[in-house]
């Protein structure tokens, strides 16, 4: 039997380039990867379908899932809960695809406590905080207040990433092509 494909956790400050790198990875290897479908208590937006973008869930049902230890990581942002269930991860790996989790620091800490997942942890680092600020502004998706908030959080994430033994691979996303090559080589080696 083929071995179960790996779970790869990608984290790093907002604006560091995770989505950009992942988009390219998925495009270049269309059959190798999948994202797990998360649970959320937020309402579906127009065009969103239950079980596709998210598993839309009531707060009561979400709490039941927390209590039954169904989530490998979960968190609440702005009053809405989000979680990644083990079943959602296995849905991806059982199809022979590596499951990529794009999560933030608190989620990383929780997944770290699940050694049975055998996850690999990749951290995407900006070349400098100044460059990160430039990218966040350049993306043009955030208000000034949101940029400041994300930068404050980024400093915490960068400090956390210094903890020895947290990440299996740290990639500095300075030159995009070079960073992509490093990510591609590391992840493809995990798939062998
Ligand atoms: N190596 C790079 N050099 C210059 N600009 C980059 C590089 N990588 C990404 N960018 C740009 O930086 C901005 C932020 O990238 P992206 O949205 O991929 O970040 P992210 O880490 O996924 O952020 P979030 O966690 O908020 O979703 C984008 O405008 C993207 O085009």
UniProtKB/TrEMBL annotation:
Q: What is this enzyme's class at the first EC digit?
A: transferase
One of the entry's Gene Ontology molecular-function terms is: GMP kinase activity
Q: Which domain of life is it from?
A: Eukaryota
Sorted alphabetically, the keyword list is: ATP-binding, Kinase, Nucleotide-binding, Transferase
Query: GO CC terms on record?
Result: cytosol
Q: Does the keyword Ligase apply?
A: no
Q: What EC number(s) would the UniProt record show?
A: 2.7.4.8
Domain Guanylate kinase-like residue range list: 5-188
Tell me the Gene3D superfamilies matching this sequence. Answer: Guanylate Kinase phosphate binding domain, P-loop containing nucleotide triphosphate hydrolases
| Keyword Nucleotide-binding applies | yes
Give the record's family classification: Belongs to the guanylate kinase family.
The protein in question is named Guanylate kinase
Which organism is this protein's natural source? Answer: Sphaerosporella brunnea
């Amino acid at each position: 039997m083929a071995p179960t494909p790996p779970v790869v956790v990608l984290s790093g400050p907002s604006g560091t380039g995770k989505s950009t790198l992942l988009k390219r990875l998925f495009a270049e290897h269309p059959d190798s990867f999948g994202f797990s479908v998360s649970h959320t208590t937020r309402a579906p937006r127009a065009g969103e379908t239950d079980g596709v973008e998210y598993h839309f869930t009531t707060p009561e049902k979400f709490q039941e899932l927390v209590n039954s230890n169904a989530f490998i990581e979960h968190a609440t942002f702005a009053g809405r809960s989000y979680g990644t269930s083990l079943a959602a991860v296995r849905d991806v790996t059982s199809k022979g695809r590596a499951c990529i989790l794009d999560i933030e620091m608190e989620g990383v800490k929780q997944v770290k406590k699940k050694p049975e997942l055998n996850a690999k942890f990749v951290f995407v680092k900006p070349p400098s905080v100044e460059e990160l600020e430039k990218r966040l502004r350049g993306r043009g998706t955030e208000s000034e207040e949101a940029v400041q908030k994300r930068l404050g959080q980024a400093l915490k994430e960068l400090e956390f990433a210094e903890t020895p033994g947290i990440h299996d691979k740290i990639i500095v996303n300075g030159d995009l092509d070079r960073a992509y090559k490093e990510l591609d080589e590391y992840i493809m080696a995990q798939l062998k």
